[in-house]
Amino acid sequence: MLDPALIADLRAARRIVVFTGAGMSAESGIPTFRERLTGLWAQVDPMEIATPWAFRADPQRVWDWHVHLAEAVRAARPNAGHEAIAALEQAGLDVTVITQNVDALHHRAGSRAVVELHGNLLRLKSFVDEEAAFAAASPTICRACDGYAVWESCDPYADRSDLAAIELRAGAVPRCPGCGALLRPDVVWFGEPLAVEAIEAAWNAVDRCDVLFAVGASLEVEPAASLPWRALARGARVIEVNPSPTELVGQCHAGIRGGAAEVLPELFGIIWPSR
Ligand code: APR
């Protein structure tokens, strides 16, 4: 599978980054986004369902689509690939997972050093409709959801536990118990910036790593897509695991054609046989 000299380099790596995309969770039964027939974006235009303006135009439709995906996420279990990554960290290796996925399967597999670049589908936050908020009197920041309270008075008795108790489930779009703002999934929609602390943590991990495994990512969405090239530019070893070649082909140190759940346990067993 790999050149012995490359294996020796990988075994000598002190800091490891595993960068994952939707393909990482494909074998857990969660659909990817761009696969021609089965991808989520083959069924619906993301601009109609995964943008702030789509939510403002039809909150219920956007909420219902995310509920459908959340049901697949709740039913999913970490696969052997997630578990192989978590096992490296548990064996004492310095492993940072940088994931574009919002399914929390790396956490559920036992990984602890996880950067969720695109948020977490099962966590909610206030839909900060700044136009509405600032159209009213000067908005106050709601203590429960950190959103802009649309009106002056925000329920002083609501707190974050009230918010945490509200789940992404079928039904009417819920509101913040403190300020009444609509709630939405805490994921990064098209047209939204990533959380500064998330992208900075990712850049920091990539800038320190000796090897980056790019697993199940089509590398079509920035700024995540640039991370493997950022690692290459620094001289780190970059290994891709994906049934289909991406733009990394010919530039990474090895491109392994296969599924994450099948390849990762075998690959890590070859590189770190004693772990
Ligand atoms: N194992 C590994 N890779 C796989 C597997 C598998 N079993 N099955 C499919 N793949 C690969 C596909 O070949 C493809 O390259 O996973 C990749 C999935 O690509 P996308 O569907 O584009 O998902 P992703 O790269 O995560 O998309 C990035 O785009 O829509 C936004 O926010 C969304 O986080 C997402 C971002």
- Counting H and I runs of at least 4 residues, what is the number of helices? 12
Bound compounds, each kind once, are: adenosine-5-diphosphoribose
How many β-strand stretches?
Answer: 10
Determine and state the CATH class of the domain at 4-32 and 78-121 and 194-271: Alpha Beta
How would you describe the overall organization of this protein?
By secondary structure, the protein is of the alpha/beta class. The protein contains twelve helices and ten strands. α10 runs parallel beside α11 (227-233). Residues 21-23, 26-27, 32-35, 39, 100, 118, 215-218, 220-221, 241-244, 246, 259-260 line the site of adenosine-5-diphosphoribose.
